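> Could you send the Cellulose synthase prediction when you get a chance?

Sure thing. Input:
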Amino acid sequence: MDLPPVDIFVTTADSDLEPPIITFNTLLSLLAVDYAAHKLACYLSDDGCSPLTFYSLVEASKFAKLWVQFCKKYNVQVRAPFRYFLGEFMPSDHANSCNEEFQWQWQKMKNEYDQLSRKVDDAAQNLSHCDLTGELAIFSNADSRNHSTIVKVIWENKEDSSDHLPHLVYISREKRSQHNHHYKAGAMNVLTRVSALMTNAPFMLNVDCDMFTNNPQVVRETICLLLGSKRETVCGFVQGPQLFYDGPADQVVISNEYMVKGVAEIQGPPYEGTGCFHRRKVIYGLGPDEVTNLTSEKGKLADEHELVKEFGACQVAASYYEYGTNRGKKFISYPYPNLIHLFQPHGIVDSHGVYSEFSAFLGCAPSDGPAAMIQQKRWATGLLEILFSISNPIFSIGDLQSRRCLAYIWILIWGLRSIPELCYAILPAYCIIYNSNFLPYFCLNCVPVQVEEPGIYIPVALFVIYNLYTLSEYLRLGFRIRSWWINQSMERITTMNAWLFALASFIIKFLGLSETVFEVTQKDQSNSDNNDGTINPEEFTFDKSPVFIPGTTILLVQLAALATALLGLQPEAHRGQGSGLGEFMCSFYLVACFWPIVKGLFRKGKYGIPFSTMCKSAVLAFIFVHLGRSSSNMG
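Output:
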C-alpha cells in the first residue's frame, strides 16, 4: 500500500526551561519511526530563537544518520536514546544480546550518544562566550522577542530514498513587539504555512518537544485509521492519550479512561494540543469529505531559493502575516486567543475524530511542585479564555451535541471552581472560631452524640457516595487506595492555589490591565536535587512563588480554628447552637488534604515552604481572623 506523506511538527519555546537534549531526543525518536523516510518531514519550531537549539539540532542530525540505521536494523522499540540507554535497556536484555555484532554496535551507539550529549552540555555552559559565526551568524543580533524569520534546512532527503533520514527543517518565526505572536497557536500556524510551501503533506502530526514515541509503528498505524472510504469522509484527526514516562501514571490513566474516552464517545475526542494527527485540509477549514486542490507536489522538499523567490517562504513566518486577517478566528489556522489547545481547531468541530487507544507518545511530567502549579495555572487560564470567547462550546450548540457541550463546559470552568471551593474551605474554620454552624446540627455535648437535625444525612451521604465512587474508579484499574488519596489531596491543593491564580490572571487580562504571559513548564530528565543529588517524586516541593500563599493561608486558618476549639476559646454560641461535629470534620478533612503543606511548614530546602511565604500567609490568616471577629461582634 502506497502510504501518504506526513509532516511532523515539534515546538519548543525556551532552551533554558526546555533543554535541547530533551528536544533532540524527541526528534531522534520521530526520525527513526518505521515509515518511508522520503515521505516524512520533521519541522522544529524554536520560539526562543536559540543558537543552542539550532546547534543541538545540527549535531543531532549527524548522530541521527547512525541512530536511525541502528534502530531499524535491530528493531529497537524505544527510539529515544536517553531512554534506550537506561539500565533497563541494557544489551543483555535485548533479543539480539547473543549477537556479538549487536553488542559492539550497541556500545558504539552509546559512546556516540554520550559524545553528542557532552557537546551540547559544553555548548550550553559556554553559550555566553560562543563565537556566533558561520551557520550561527544569523543569531548574532537576534533577540528571543525581536528577530527576523529564520528557516534552515538541516537535512534534505534528495534521493527520495526510504533508507535515508526524513527531511529536517529548523524554523524560528519572526517576532516584533508591535504584533501579537499568540504563543504555541501562532507557532503551529507558522509551521502549517511553511510546511505547505515546502512539503505540503496531506497529514500533520504535532508533538511537544518533551515527548518521544514508544511505538516505532505509530505513524503507519495512525495513518491507517485515517484512510479508507468511510474514514476519509468523517474522520478529521486522530488523538492519542497523553502519558508520562517519569511521573505518577494513576491520575493521567484515570482521566484518560473515564473522562477522555467518555467524551470521545460523543462526536469524537477533543484535541488535546499534542500527540495528534490532523488532515491538513481540516486545519484549512474544510471537512474531511471536501475535495481541495492543494498546490505543490506532496512529500517532496521544494528548493529553498525557489521558495523564497516565488512564494516568500520567510514571509509566511513573518509577524505581520496574519495582521488584519481572520486567521486564528474563522479559518485556515489554529484558533486564537488561548494559551492551550484542548479543543478542536476551526474546521474540526464538524468532523469526527478517532481516539487512539495505543500509547504512542510519552511526555515529561513537571519536575517538581512549582512546575506542576505553573502548568495547571497555564491550563486553567487557557480554558477560561476559551470559556469567555467565541470558541465557547455554548455558541456551537448547533454543531455539537448538548452532552458534548456540557462535557466541555465542565472542563472549561476549572478556574471558576476555585472561588466556591475557597469559600467552602474557609467556612468551617470561620464557624469553629466564632462558634456558629452552617451544617445541620450535631450535639457534641450529648453522650452519645445525638443528631438534632436529620438534614445532616444529606451532605454526609453525598460526601461518602462521591468518595466511594471515585475510589472504585482507581481500584477497578488496579491502583492502590494511597494513589486515590494523593490525587484527592492534590486536587484540593491545585484548585485553591494554581486555579485561583489562573482566575486572577484571566481577570487582569480581561480588564485590560495586563497581558497574559505564557509560562513554560520546566523540563528535566534527571530529576535530581541540587543539594543531595536525589529527589523523592512522591514528596511535594516548594519555592518562593506566590502560588503557594493561598494554600498555606487556608491551612493556617484551619489550624487556628482547631486550636481555638481545643483550648476552649470559642465565644458563646448564638441561640445555643454553635459549631458541631460537621464543621470539625470538614476542618480536619481539609488539614488532611493539605498534609503536603503541613509537612512543608516543618521542613527546609526544596521540601520546605519558604519563610517569606509563611510570613505572608500568617498575616493573611491573622487578617481573616480579625475581620471575622469584627463581623461576628457586629452580628
